[in-house]
Amino acid sequence: MQEYWTRWENWMKQYAPKLLTILNSGVSHEVLESLEKLIGKAMPDDFKAFYVVHNGQQRVRTGLVDADQLLPVEDIIEKWHYWQDLLDAGTFQYNGEPIASEPDTGIRNNWWNPLWIPITSDGFGNYHCIDLDPAPEGTYGQIITLWHDDGHREIIAPSFREWIAQYLDAVERGDYIFVKKWGIVSKDTTLNYND
């Protein structure tokens, strides 16, 4: 997975050198093991290999993934606990029945599932997650969307590796640009460039 970081860092050097300063150093195997122990499942090998190089990004407004933050493992654990606390409190039930989402084929129709592991955050309660409990038509480790106020759940990529590869292909192709306030964003963004 080093090759993907090399590509991403090379792009940053050319178009957004300040982003290099918000990359965290690699995560330890012990921290990865603490995440796996918490969720009771192994994270995909590609995810672990990627995070050994850089443990996501620092907590700043500027995002690396279409204006979203690439969460470090410590924040992944924090976000997981947040959603788990909501689940335990019965937040995702109405009149004793689970609130269903509107998922793509291959995703379970939960509002949130403890095996949906958040890896990006927009800071407003919306995430990309690694799905470790797909529906029968899905793929273990697929990347899905999780919106706090919208029931649609979408498959973004069939694996962590393919998600990163697709995103970096788009970044290198020029589909994304750097905007100082927001970070790497779609060139067709509606975000105000001047803020």
Automatic annotation (TrEMBL):
<protein>
    <submittedName>
        <fullName>Molybdenum cofactor biosynthesis protein MoeA</fullName>
    </submittedName>
</protein>
<dbReference type="InterPro" id="IPR037883">
    <property type="entry name" value="Knr4/Smi1-like_sf"/>
</dbReference>
<dbReference type="InterPro" id="IPR051873">
    <property type="entry name" value="KNR4/SMI1_regulator"/>
</dbReference>
<dbReference type="Pfam" id="PF09346">
    <property type="entry name" value="SMI1_KNR4"/>
</dbReference>
<dbReference type="InterPro" id="IPR018958">
    <property type="entry name" value="Knr4/Smi1-like_dom"/>
</dbReference>
